[in-house]
Structure formats: C-alpha cells, structure tokens
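User: I'm writing a tutorial on reading structure tokens. Could you give me a worked example: one chain, its sequence, then its tokens, then a sentence or two explaining what the tokens reveal?
Assistant: Sure. Here is the example chain.
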Amino acid sequence: MTSHELTIGIEEEYQIVDSTGELRPHIDTLLRAMAEEPVGEQVRAEMIQSVVEAGTGVCYSVDQAFAELSNLRSTLARRLAPEGLRIACAGTHPFSRWQEQLITDSDRYKMLEDEMQDVVREILIFGLHVHVGIPDRELRMDVMNEARYFLPHLLALSTSSPFWAGRDTGLKSYRSVVWSRFPRSGIPPDFVSYGEYEDYLDILVRTGCIDDGKKIWWDLRSHPQHPTLEFRCCDQTTRIEETICMAALIQAICAKLLALRSRNLGFRRYMPALVAENKWRAMRYGIGGSLIDFGRRAEVPMRELALELLEFVDDVVDRLGSRAAVEYVHTILREGTSADRQVEVLREQGSLPAVVEHLCAETIG
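And here are its predicted structure tokens:
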C-alpha cells in the first residue's frame, strides 16, 4: 500500500482576526484579493464572514500536503497584512461571540439558517477535515466502520478549543460540544454495505430531511461527491506540523486497516455508543485523560494509547513515506496540544488577547 493508492486532501478553517485579536468579517474582500493568486481557487467562504476555508488538491504524499498548506497559510497572511488582519488556527476563538458575527450572503447558508436557526448561527467553530482516497465503495464502507474506533484518539491529539465566548470551558474541545447540536453529527452508525448506506440516504432525501449527502455531518463519512473517506473529528490544529501529523495518522490508519483486510484479518468493530464514550473523554481531557480500551475492558491513559497507535501503524508508514510526520505525535505528547498550550498562556499572562497572539504566531510558525 503506497500513498499513491491512498491519496489525501486536507481542508483547514482559519480565523480572520484584527490587531486587537477580535474576529473580523472580511471574507468578501479577501476572496477578491485571492482571485489574483495561483491558489485562489483553493480558498472558499464559510458560513461566518470571519472564517476562511483553504484546501489542498489531491496529494500523493504528506510532504506535498505540507508544501501546499504552507503556501496557502503564507499567501493568506500576506494578503491580509495590508488590512492589519491575520489568520489564527484553533477550534474556537477565545473570546469573540457568535451573536456578533455576520452570515455569509449565499443561498445555501440562507437556507441553512432558515432551517436550523440559532443552531447554525452559533457555529463559530473551526475544524480540520482530512480526505483519504478509497475508490472501492465497499472497501470504503468497511474502513469507515473500523476506523470509527480511532476517532476519539485523533480528537484527543488535535484538541484546540478550550475557550468559548470569553470563558475557559474546562474542556479541551468545546468545538465538539457546539458541533454536536447539529443533526446527523457525531459518531457514525454501522453499515453492513454501501447499499445500506445508499438506502439510508434515499430515505432521508425522500422524506425531506436532507436534499443530498452533504448534510450528513458525522465525524467520519463517505464523501457524497468524491471517492474518499472524510475524517471530520479533529479540531483545527494550530501548528502546521500538527495538521500534517493528523493527516499522516489518518492515512496510516486507513492503510493498516486495508492491509489487515487484504490478509483476511479485519479489525474488530465496536458499538458507536461505546466509541461515543471515548469521544466525550477526549473532548473533556484531551491527551491528559484516559480512554477505554474495549478489548481489555479497562481505562488506559491517552498518552499510552497514542504510543500504541504509533505501534499499530508502524509497518505501513515507511511505504507511505510518512514516518516523520506520524512521529510528531511524540512532540504533541511532550509539548501538549494547542488546547494545553492556550490554557498555559492564559495561566501565565492572564489575558485572552494574549492567547490570540500566541495562536497567530504558531499558525504562521
């Protein structure tokens, strides 16, 4: 299994902040400026006007993804600088409030607002999405069912949203709390086949619940338009090295599950309700807590499980060319996640604007 067989694509969601650290609605002006850049088509508006989404193309290695994201981050920063604005990466903004944000003017967002009201208006959150190309639909569904187990581990390693509306929430991923209010979000259910998944979508479309598969917002989904598995569980990571680490881990997990399947050694599937228990622990404690090892029926520190995850994928990362990226996990365990570092900045400096300054500095590196 090589990276050419398991392509990756990464989508990041950035905060647009001004010199005071507040979010600034600037997406329309930014998109006009970015239209002059070679990467302009890779930058898009989101629901909130102070958010900008940027995505790589189809990447054949984590090194390629790193180069593309570096260029995207630096280009956006350069285009914002003359306006006194910056980008910051984190799952939530430390103190700006959703009630003060402007909704992007588009038919899709207007329909979502009409349908979901305050549930969608308060979506002032920022996520990291990683796509892994798996063209075979049945294999894609099999991997989705098995990879579900690792979603809490990935979330714990990526936590970056301890603050909400000026408060220290006591959680490491408050983004996950806000996102959980959306319908059809959270841990995905189990499907015996791709046909069963299609039947599920058909029922929802026929009964007016959704108009297409884009409104399936699980932490892991078979993408409705592309032959990819889309991992949506992670907070937006602050350092680009963290983003690449998450992407490399996700690609390696898929590669390992496919390798096991090729030898008729499928990974055990666990109930979504059990995985949800681990997700809550990841949201609350990040890498500082314990998850449940369902095989051992015991609590195990997340730090130990992170090392076990590295062992699990060890035999595929060299073929993928991602060993260095995956082993950045050791840096995360040593220096903490973005959430840990943000809380430490607040403890040391006593200022949420100082946290934003810290985020801006780490975002560009």
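What the tokens reveal: The two ends are 32 Å apart (CA to CA). The first strand starts at residue 8 and ends at 17.
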